[in-house]
Amino acid sequence: MEILQSFLSLGASAVMPVIILIIGLIFGMKFKKAFMSGITVGIGFIGINLVAGLLMGTIMAPLINTLTENWNLSLSTVDMGWPLASGIAFSTGTLVLIMFAVLIILNIVMMALKLTTTLNVDIWNFWHFIMFAAFGHILTGSLVLGCIIGAAYCAITLLLSGRISGSIAKFTGVEGLTITAVGFPVAYYICYAVDRIVDRIPGINKINFNLKSVPEKYAFLTEPSIIGIFVGVILSLLAKYPVNNVILTSIQLGAVMYIMPRMVKILMEGLAPITEAAGDFMNDRFPGRKVDIAIDCAALAGDTELLTISTIMVPVTLLLAVVLPFNTVLPIGDLPALVYMLAPAIVAANRNSFRAIINSLVIIVIFLFIASDLAPLATGVAQATGIVKDQGMVSCLTFGNEHIGYVLLKLTELIQSFK
Question: Are 243 and 69 spatial neighbours (Cβ–Cβ below 8 Å)?
């Protein structure tokens, strides 16, 4: 188990090349081609992580802290952020080993029974299912029931994820991909439902704006770098930065918007041969069967509209955290991760930025509600692993997107109340 945990602790850039190599060989790829696919995916993840580090650490972290101080934000629950949350999930001892075996076997069985088309190779993001298994363990006092909750969360996600692969393909331009991480399938369907409601509102349903609809003579303003600079200036002014910091932050954000799509393109170059080999493998052995490879949300993070809207929603999320009466979470740790968490809003809106913003507002409210309600369980698990000491309540904005896991926990809690 220690070897597994040590391997997983290396992160997606080291874990995924090995997984891609193994999967490629299973699907009949030649070693050289499978190896190069794995290496290319690893390079893509490293590039994405480098740019994400610039975005989340160098740019957004001090910006968010300054905004928080300037607006005098004070809430009782600290958003510890997904990096710490994933570390806690992978530190839950025996539960990690059990859940890895359960999740892999579950995926194989569901594919064999034709219950899903999703092959979940996104092993790094198993931590989401493991965390909710840990929540279930704390809630019920039973390791077995905790594992059942985590497995059920995974099973429902696998059922839904294959059904959204068409929308992912339309968004990315690559067939045979889907996403299981961060509650993506349910968030997509929530946003899809919001989109259908907007369709029925006269006048509003005619608004259709996206970065590609700007007249040609103003098209340069929609270049990723220009958008990054503009958003950087606005956020820096809100943070009351001095002029030199405004200039530096805006240029840095412009660089992120320019470089990130190129890093994602490298990742996609590595994934394309695997998805093709998976399709050929299934067609040869199971004619008519399709397979969708589950990938990390980072694969969508290079989209210009997603980067733009997620950055704009940073101050909006802080404002909602203050005004919503049920919220107790100060969303600092995961605010930079909105670029992953809001991806369903943009995908479901078919690149209509106006509707994507409406979708984003809806799911951010849900983020805050669920993250606040899960704070006692999150604090219990964090303290049980020893990673977080007795320093008040903690939660994670990312938990707010784990709708299936949350509902399963509430149902378990309801059943227990009748005993």
Answer: no
